[in-house]
Structures are given as C-alpha cells and as structure tokens.
Amino acid sequence: MKATVIHAPGDVRLEEVPDPQVVAPTDAVVRVVASCVCGSDLWPYRGANEVNEPRRIGHEFVGIVEETGSEVRDVRPGQFVIAPFVWSCGDCLPCRSGFQTSCERGGGWGGDDREGHPVDGGQGEAVRVPQADGTLVPVDGVDDSVDERLLASLLTCSDVVATGWHAASRAGVEPGMTVAVVGDGAVGLSAVLAARELGAERIIAMSRYEARQGVAREFGATDIVEARGDEGVAAVRELTAGQGADRVLECVGTGESMVQALRSTRPGGTVGYVGVPHGVELPVELMFRRNLNVAGGVAPARAYAEMLRDKVLAGQIEPGRVFDAVMPLADVSEGYRAMDERRAIKVMLRP
Amino acid sequence: MKATVIHAPGDVRLEEVPDPQVVAPTDAVVRVVASCVCGSDLWPYRGANEVNEPRRIGHEFVGIVEETGSEVRDVRPGQFVIAPFVWSCGDCLPCRSGFQTSCERGGGWGGDDREGHPVDGGQGEAVRVPQADGTLVPVDGVDDSVDERLLASLLTCSDVVATGWHAASRAGVEPGMTVAVVGDGAVGLSAVLAARELGAERIIAMSRYEARQGVAREFGATDIVEARGDEGVAAVRELTAGQGADRVLECVGTGESMVQALRSTRPGGTVGYVGVPHGVELPVELMFRRNLNVAGGVAPARAYAEMLRDKVLAGQIEPGRVFDAVMPLADVSEGYRAMDERRAIKVMLRP
C-alpha cells in the first residue's frame, strides 16, 4: 500500500510500504477513508522537532474496518470508525478515568507498539490499529459513500474538535463566561466552538486571517482581536473591563502565545492549553500573584469522541468547517505546503 | 509603640516606631492582641529574599479596633477583628470575584499604601489598617480576654488555614479523593485539614518530623510518607495503585517540592500550590504529557476568612493546633530562630 513518510523537514513523500496485517489478537486493520494534516505535523515539517530518520506520519483518520484479531469484540469488519490520535486499551486506570493518552498499553501512530511491532501512520491507505476495542469509535449508519461534509466533521473527532473541547473543558468554561482563544488554526477554531457549546456568553477569537475569522464567527466568536503581544493583551483587557477573560484557551504551543494567554486572563482565571509546548516557560511568579490556573495537556480525544460523534450525527455541531481543502493522498506534499504557508486552515487527504 | 523591624537576614529587632494614626477616612487603627511568624517571613530571614533596608515585617494579626476613619461603616471601636494578610477594598472587580489579593486599591502589610503613607507590619503593638471595611473580619462575642486556644485558631484565619484551604479548594478536592500534601509547615498542615473538610477519603501527609506528623494525623492525615524526592514519589505512587494522588497540595514553594508534587499526581490530576515560588520552573512537558493541572497562587485569605471564622467559633475545626509556641512580642527574635531551626511549627507573639 501507499503511505506518507517524512524524510526531513520540508520533505514528505507518499511511498510504497508493507500492507498492514493483524499481528496481535487485539488488532484491527482499517482501510482509510480520509485522513488529514495536523498543525502538530508542521512541527517536524518546519524543523522544530528533529527528524533523525525517515518515519511514517499522520495521526487523524477515519475508515472502514477490514479485518479484526480474534480477541476484538466491539468493532467488526465493514464498520465505519473514527480513530483518535492515540491508541489505547480502554481498560487500565488512566483509560477508565478518561485520560487515554496516559494508557498503560497505548501509544501513538507511526511508531512501534510495546512489543516492538511497527504501527502505521494515519496518512496512508490503511492502518494496523492496536487495542482496537479500546481505540476505535464506531459510527453506525455511515459507510464509505458518506458525503464529504459529514466525513469532514467525523474526521475532526479524531483530534481537532476533541482537542479544542479539551481546552475549554479543562479550563472550566461555564455558561455566561467570557472566553478568549489564542490561536486560529483548526484547534483554536474548534476551541471557539467548544466554548460556545459549553455556554460561554462572549468569545474573543484572536486572529488576523480573514478566512479564519469567518469560521470563528460561524463557530460562535462574538469578538475578533487581530493584535498580538502587548497590544493583543490590551485589546482583550479593554473588552473585559480591564480584567482579562475568565478563561483563555491557548491553542498554539509557543512561549509567546502562552504568556499572551496568561496575561489576557483575569485574576483567578484559568488558561486551558492544548498546543504541544515548544519553548514554553511558564511565568510562575505572574501565575502566583494573579492566581492564574493552567489546565490542559495532550487531549484524550477518545474520552470526547463518542459525545462529539453524536453531536455531529445530530447536526448540532459542524466542526468539519475547519477543512478548506480536500486533496488526493497522492498530493500529500502539497497538502503540507498549503498548511505551512497558511493557504489552507486544514487539509483533508483522500486515498 | 513597639514593632518588629527586619534589618538583614537573621536580624529582626523589636524597636520603637511611631504610633499608628488614622490617615485616610477609610482607615482603622487596630491594637494587636496576637500576631505570629509566617513561613514566608523566613524567606527574607534566611536571605532567600533581599533585605535592602530595614523594614517592618509581619502580616498575620488579630486585635481590637481602637479608632476608625469617618467613612468606615462595617467595623467599630472595641470590636475584635481578624486581619487577612493583604488589605483590600472589597469593592473592585477582583475583590468582588473573591480575589482580594488582586485588589485595585489593596496592598501588603509593612509597605506603603497607594498614597505613599507607610502601613505598619503585623508583628507590633498596633497597626494602621487601610480599607478597613474591605479588610477586617469582625468576630462577635470575643474580646481581648479570649482564651489562647480560640485565639490561636482565629489568628490562623488571617493566613495559614486560609492558605491551606486555598490549595485544596483551587485544586478541586472533592469527596472520596486521595490527596497528598507536600510540606509540613503550618500551611501544609492546614491543607491536610482543608482536604479532610472537603471530603478527601485518603490524605497522605509528607513529613519527617514527629510533632508535625502528630498534628497532621489530628487534622485528618490517613498516611504519612517520610521519604522525599524520587523515593517520596515512589511511596505516594505505591499507595495509589501506581498512579499518583488525585490532588497534590504543594505548600513549600521550591522547585524541588513542585516537581515532587507534579510527579506524585495521577494523569489528569491537579496540583494546588500556595507556597511562594522560589526558583520554581514548571516542567511543562511533563504537565502536558500527563495532563497535570496547576492551580493556586497567593491565597485571598479574605475570601475564606468569614467561613473559617464561623467553623472555628462552631468548634468544627481547630486550626490553631499548628501553634506550638507562644512568646511575648519582646522575644520576636527568638521566635524567628525557633521557626528557622524547626524547633517550632508556628510561633504566636503577644504584645
């Protein structure tokens, strides 16, 4: 089959790789219907993470189960499934407490499993899924002829809408609150949507790109702040009686964006952060003095995926609006370029 | 009158200073019935904070109102009052949202007010209290003949029991949880008490001093861990099915204690911290990977003081048990030494 391999910063290629097969009795093989490029895939693509050797990439996909191991009970061949961006057993203490990203048997796509067998990345034609029962989220009544709008929204349940939801949920967004969102990528936009769904009254989206501002408004943003840094902080404070927002959702992961988020938060408020930290130093004296909480981390997408799937199927939310480009998997390299150059918010790849 | 002045690390003296007077119409003058030495007073005493010039010190006291300015409405001469460790107006947005430590008109004892007039420290015979209505917490039915046990408990409401409560409350301690407490000073012990009052089922106190372990058990600790560092983390994990505690309360403020607290927390758990940070660098990658929240900061004691006063008066809690020494104010220097050398958990000073 074909799958995406990153060789070096700026160098991703679609290559011939071995077909996935059931290795462990808890495995499934899933044929990918759609995958996508994540903002976090851009870290190695831009050289912010090292790429020491060619490796498989991609961690968001939906597809059809093709084969299951002898111990798999909860999914069956032919089913349409969402794969969260981490695989997990569903049974250990962290999984049962809703933190499947800390699963004692789990791991990430494109690496090795705990027995040393390689696991496929998501940007390919098919994937061996370890711990299939714990990992996969079935979607009844949908098959691979699903229309592209619904497909897009289901695909976001594997990561971005769950990650945005995690930011808002862990920050403790409640009805009536004022929420600011730092970051206007797919996760930031999803955080706007989550804040609205959790009842925020005022949602300030920080964005300087018109297309993203439009999606932010569709998702519930009531105010847009284009400024960054000191000016951005001042603008948020001006909108909030000089105090800062009740909750600020940090969806970038740089030191600059984290400090901006903290400085935009009112005394006693909380920053929910989900951007993979790159060079973040938390200003603990500022946090201490103003009683600013920091909540979040790597989103256990699995914990939110069923709830989000149901909201999508009910037409309550349409997180798939973050996709503004669909390309054949063969054009994966152009997909990365489009996101790197901010020509696209998020690119869907179809094998 | 006499009041305590810190001249340099290790050098505190009781000196003759000007008698306090009402300066602003919102002031009160309070005659001190009891004050005490705080763990945070030891930072400058030990040289961890600079002492550039002699300055007044002490920020926990209770006393009798002697005089009030023309605009003071809520306290009157003759009343027994608790003074939280920060003075605050009670009326601005941060005050009204329960974060009086961010008061727009407030400040700390022993410095200057916003008009540049000096404010007395708490370790003296009397104190000019700015923003008296917002700051002082009256205690009805008590006068300066109050017995020393009740006095001790009322005095803790000015700081330590409120600070311990803040750690537990901001960390989100809930009934049934397992809570570990790092730090066995008066604040750490108060955090044990707060965790019990908030319904924690299991409370692990980390302490290597027998007297403190005894108070911890009285306050509700179910387990004691004497080890620190890696071994301390391992011991907490062993008590918690390998996971770590649901909530860990960091009541020291060093980088070492913060990392120990974070490493003792289960995935998805929260560290509540109230120790004034000294050299703390938050390990954001660890926090991100394990979804560890960090909550807390400088405790708005005023927000908790009435509730705590009522619990004390009702005999529901006896936080004054943290005092194991009472000295005349004239012996303030020995009081600091006793706490510095850990001969005393907390020293009460009586003018």
TrEMBL record, chains A, B:
InterPro entries: ADH-like_C, ADH-like_N, ADH_Zn_CS, ER, GroES-like_sf, NAD(P)-bd_dom_sf. SUPFAM superfamilies: GroES-like, NAD(P)-binding Rossmann-fold domains. Keywords: Metal-binding, Oxidoreductase, Zinc. Residues 7-349 form the Enoyl reductase (ER) domain. Its cofactor is Zn(2+). Coiled coil: none annotated. GO terms for molecular function: oxidoreductase activity; zinc ion binding. Signal peptide: none annotated. Belongs to the zinc-containing alcohol dehydrogenase family. This is Threonine dehydrogenase.
